[in-house]
Specification:
The chain has 9 helices and 13 strands. The chain is α/β, with parallel strands linked by helices. The protein has one domain: Rossmann fold (3-Layer(aba) Sandwich), CATH 3.40.50.1820. The strands form 3 sheets. Strands 1-2-4-3-7-8-9-10-13 form a 9-stranded mixed beta sheet, sandwiched between helices. Helix 4 links the parallel strand 7 and strand 8. The longest helix is centred in the middle third of the chain and has 15 residues. The protein is globular.
């Protein structure tokens, strides 16, 4: 199993988490409502002729989000109340969406961490997959459970950690995410399809939650679409660090496949492997950019010059373990796409991302769309 040397990588992650605490790259700052430090940069979007229906002028359907106050053991990093949101539409088709928002590992980065407390899905102004009025949207008319992110632990933590200097973090992301998943299963028990997806930090845990969803909804067809985390490596020291400060080993499901698991085998890429072995019927997919500025920042100081090498290496590791992984790798420096307008125009090798996602949703045979050879 391929591994990346971790000492230097951990150091840069510690530095980078504070600088990128909102988890959005500078290249995305030209996009509406996504400013990072006041900087702007051009975006790279490959457009191809539209093969799906064009948008109409029909007014988008009215959307009402129900705010659900989570149980008391759920909380944000500062101990404040945690809530998630439910959109009630087609009860047989449901999206479980995990938002992004950075990570922290020590007193300095956690002191600077600003979780997205109380931010609702309405912040995305019906862009991307949140636009129910666009006929090109593969998820138009689907119900959705939207899980905000405010714990700095990519929804994998289950501990309270005292970092010193008065910095105490409630890394309860796993508790928060599990509460939202449980509510989804109770609210939509007859779901025929479930898409587990997320962006950036929220995309990291999607395979794990898909596996847990299969336990709660055994008759549901489950698909994963992870947006913006394909390059984060399997590094022993990183795995050990997150176990120590986030309590990730307190968030391991009681699956037979995981008996005796150690922190060294609980890496971000291996979540696909564990979930795929737990339920081979789950379909896994991911979207990444070749020059993703956020992921490149984290990995560049580890001596990796080519982000695409890590992206492809992770796919090789996952598929070598017997878990198929569909991938859509687009050119450019952007970080995520699912809640941006470019979701409808981006294409690789003549394939629109929206068409590719629609095939994923429909369970049609599909191939990887990889813009660049390594």
């Amino acid at each position: 199993m391929a591994r990346i040397g971790g000492t230097i990588l951990v150091a840069v992650l510690l530095m980078g988490a504070a600088a990128c605490s909102d988890d959005k790259g500078a290249a995305e700052s030209a996009r509406p409502d996504d400013t990072v430090g006041g900087d702007t940069a051009s975006t790279t979007v490959t457009e191809v002729p539209t093969t799906t229906a064009p948008p109409t002028t029909t007014a988008a359907p009215e959307i009402t989000w129900e705010t659900v106050v989570a149980p008391a053991d759920c909380m944000c990093a500062d101990g404040s109340e945690f809530s998630f949101f439910i959109k009630h539409a087609d009860p047989t088709k449901v999206v479980l969406f995990f938002d992004g928002g950075g990570a922290c590992f020590n007193a300095d980065t956690c002191a600077a961490y600003k979780g997205e407390v109380g931010l609702s899905p309405e912040r995305w102004a019906r862009n991307g997959i949140f636009d129910d009025g666009d006929p090109r949207n593969p998820f138009a008319g689907w119900s959705m459970v939207y899980v905000p992110y405010c714990t700095g632990d990519v929804f994998l933590g289950n501990t309270t950690h005292d970092y010193g200097n008065g910095v105490v973090m409630n890394h309860k992301g796993f508790i928060n995410g599990s509460s939202a998943l449980n509510a989804l299963a109770a609210t939509f028990p007859d779901a025929e399809q479930l898409m587990v997806t997320g962006v950036s930090a929220g995309s990291v845990p999607t395979p794990l939650y898909a596996g847990m969803a299969s336990d709660l909804l055994p008759d549901t067809r489950i698909t994963v679409l992870a947006d913006g985390s394909g390059a984060y490596p399997d590094a022993a020291s990183l795995n050990g660090l997150t176990s120590t400060v986030w309590g990730t080993m307190n968030a391991v499901p009681d699956w037979p496949e995981l008996a005796g698991i150690t922190p060294d085998d609980w890496s971000f890429p291996e979540l696909f492997i564990h979930a795929g072995r737990h339920d081979p019927d789950i379909v896994f997919a991911r979207h990444d950019y070749t020059d993703d500025v956020t992921q490149a920042f984290f990995t560049g100081f580890a001596g990796v010059d080519d982000l695409l090498v890590l992206i492809d290496q992770n796919e090789v590791q996952i598929e070598a373990a017997g878990v198929p992984l569909h991938s859509f790798i687009a050119p450019g420096p952007n970080h995520t796409i699912l809640y941006f307008a470019e979701f409808y125009t981006e294409g690789v090798d003549g394939m629109l991302l929206t068409d590719w996602v629609q095939m994923l949703v429909d369970g049609e045979p599909m191939s990887d769309n990889h813009c660049c050879a390594t």
